[in-house]
Amino acid sequence: MQNAFIAFPWAVALILLPLAGAIFCFLFPRLNRTLGLMTSFGIGVAVVGLGWQLQEHGIYRHAVSGWGAPLGIELYADGLSLLMLATTALVGFAISVYSTAYFNPTLSIRFWPIWLCLLAALNALFLSADIFNLYVTLELLGLSAVALTALTGSKEALSGGMRYLLATLLASLAYLLGVALLYHNFGSVDITLLAQQIHASPATWAALGLMGAGLMLKTAIFPLHFWLPPAHGSAPAPVSALLSALVIKASFYILLRLWFTLFEPIIESETINSLLGLLGCAAIIWGSVQAMRQTRLKLLIAYSTVAQIGYLFLVFPLATSMGSTAWSGAAYIIISHALAKSAMFLSAGNLLTFGGHDRISDLDRVVQRLPLTAAAFGLAGVSIMGLPPSGGFIGKWLLLEAAMIQQRWDLVAVMILGGLLAAAYIFKVIGRTFTQAPVTHEAQSVSATMQWSALLLAIGAILLGFLALPVLSLLNISDPTITSGVGL
Amino acid sequence: MNWNAWIPLLVVLSSLLPGLIIFGLAEEKVRVRITLNLFGALTKLILVGWMIWGVYNGYHYETRLPLLPNLELVLRAGPLALLFVSLSTLLWLVTTVYAIGYLEDSPHRSRFFGFFSLCVTATVGVALAGNLITFLLFYELLTLATYPLIVHRGTEEARQAGKTYLRYTISGGALLLIGTVWLYSLTGTLEFTPKGFLTNMGEEHYPALITIFTLLIAGLGVKAALFPLHGWLPQAMVAPAPVSALLHAVAVVKAGAFGIIRVVYEVFGVEFSAALGVLTALAWLASFTIIYGSLRALFQDDLKRRLAFSTISQVSYIALGVAIAGPIATIGGVVHLVHQGLMKITLFFCAGNLAETLGIHKISEMNGVGRRMPWTMGAFTIGAFGMIGAPPVAGFISKWYLGLGALNTGQSWVILVLAGSSLLNAAYFLPILHRAWFMPSPKSWPHEHDFGNKETAWPLLLPPLITAAIALAAGLLVTLPFSPLEWAKLISVREFYQP
Fold it and tell me: Could you tell me if A469 lies within 8 Å of chain B, comparing CB atoms?
């Protein structure tokens, strides 16, 4: 029994299950909620299975239908992939539960097939080991994300979605050109094989530039973030949550992989990494300041995402020479931001349902009338600010430690300033929820399902503050900074 | 299974868990809430009593949980930790009783008591923290847990006060964080050690260490209300009286002062700090704050504001005792942590009683109030005399040891500060007492509540009487083995000046 559990190809299940779920949701629209929830739960089980396999055997490789690289498609999973998959499964499940209560029947029929498709794309992306497969999954991911953004069909959603569509297509195109250049020069798309052959040449540099730019546009790093606030701000709450928590992380994940395993040997000068770090700093400051200036809650949260992406980019200047600490810090921020930010967007969805608006200055009495939602927002805020005890604190501590050891005082200052600004914009919201203006209109009730799924995600972000050791040990199942140079 | 390894954690959980349950309670479940509160407070008291006895007899209580690679969450009950823990635990119990009376029939009590318990949890965590990162964790938790209490009333004024409070404390926390990470990147450890863990650092690190010291003290000084970082404290007075009482006597300001003790004695080590030359600066800053706070207090007509400025002044005695650096002054500073807590909480309880019973908020309205509320004002008088430093109340003992310690280390200018501050204390407390006892009462009070033939409700009256009695006893019975003074001596011998 146990052997069967270990031997089962969980990685394949992770991709096929949501695809099958999507098809069934499309075929049997009346069962969409049940099917969607079951699929989401199944993904969780599959991730546990895969995790077990990784614990037992180390890095996982699976040649689909027996054809390995360079001819066939190979699935690959190490600690980083596992953590991304686990985060996707966890956040995805909470969003699924939330969505059963959030959407009306018409929207629900449209939502589930696309959402499950998106999950399939995410899982496949985290399991891919070649740059062309990554392109395919990235494209599928982008298109389903755009479709979800425009789900309601309102004018705002359509224009936000359109902008997003153009940005994401442009980005994929740039990435694909880079892939073509590499394939033409080295005759392979498998990351491991490429890493062995790659050497500096104009074509490689062009590929690096194109792929890097494409992925950065998708990740919405400053100044390429222009598409994010309207898209994340206008989408339905669960969609905003999954966009901010998962979708932008996927392109960052590819960037991280390419940078530390594929392009590492040819990035000799510090300039590129410093430049990326600089963009990160600018994102932290700019995103936070913009967030402070917003009067609408969802836009505030969206700009906060812009700022948080900035922290991730600090990994490039910090991890080149140091490796593990900054690397773990960035990975930790990815996970805790995914939990905290989705909790925030879901609470914003609750507030929007409740009061019919998301004007920050009119959030009076929310603490009394929607205590669970207020708690969810507050706890998620703690993690976003990077205050202890929370996952955000652990991530920030690790990054700070790395920056201190390398005497990068500029980065230390930006990180601390970013935390202060985050406190300013989060408490701007929280302070308003305590005030006691007279009740002006009858509020809509918010279901317990919606309140609790937001709260549990936020509690997860707090608990991450105490789980650093187990999570980091998972992450180190294979550390790309250690294996780089020798191939994967 | 070694139980001693879990008692410190249990002490923290004994207020955390009731607090979390209380958040979920419906507003009208008054009985359940009171039971939970008192159960938590009493459990904590018993556990702390147990540990005091154990530590006195040489046992060790330490909980270690993994937090980060090479860093652990450490809760350790040493003598110094226990001093602060027992103060918090005792005053939490008393304040809970007071708060139950004070908030009777007011809205949002579940929320209030939930955060109240979190606040105490954080304070106890600050006290028990065995390394700097654990300290930082609870220190920030304290910031977060007190914010909802300050904005509790939900008025625009409260919101503004909360904003000011956060502006100061979050920035302070950030400074503390920088200092902590920097220290860790230099030394690779953060464990509180008697005589500090920096003595082996070479000369080339001195500039960095001085900067770290400044960062840490500035971060802690925000909560300890050291000048010029005190601005939030008078504004935070909009909070309900039990919160002000707890903030001033135990939780926030004391967490800062306690942190200063830890940093000077168990991170840097007092001799090493003196060698760095940072203690003189701290001593001057503390002295200035003492005088400045008293001067500002003189000109406040609002009773709670006057008490707030008095706190700013009095808490700096602790920093002063630490900075004078010598066994005797240390005892004075450490024991003042307890003494100031007892006296100040009494004064705030009394101020709360005046406001609740007669609607008095200003000193100019206090004429003849002593005859209307003799017990309350009796307690107030004891507290006020203690603050001035008149024997036999506890405050005298602190000042005596501070003065003696200063003379002992050849810093006689401190005597001037102490004398000046005592004069100023007298100048802002005695007129209040004069008004209350010797001026004729007005025909009617601003806003009088009827409590029958009692002067006020029992839960409001008992707490100040109890704390005043303890403050008096701490002054009278100084030579008993478990008096705060004797315990402070034990701390000095066992932790700071270990042979």
Answer: yes
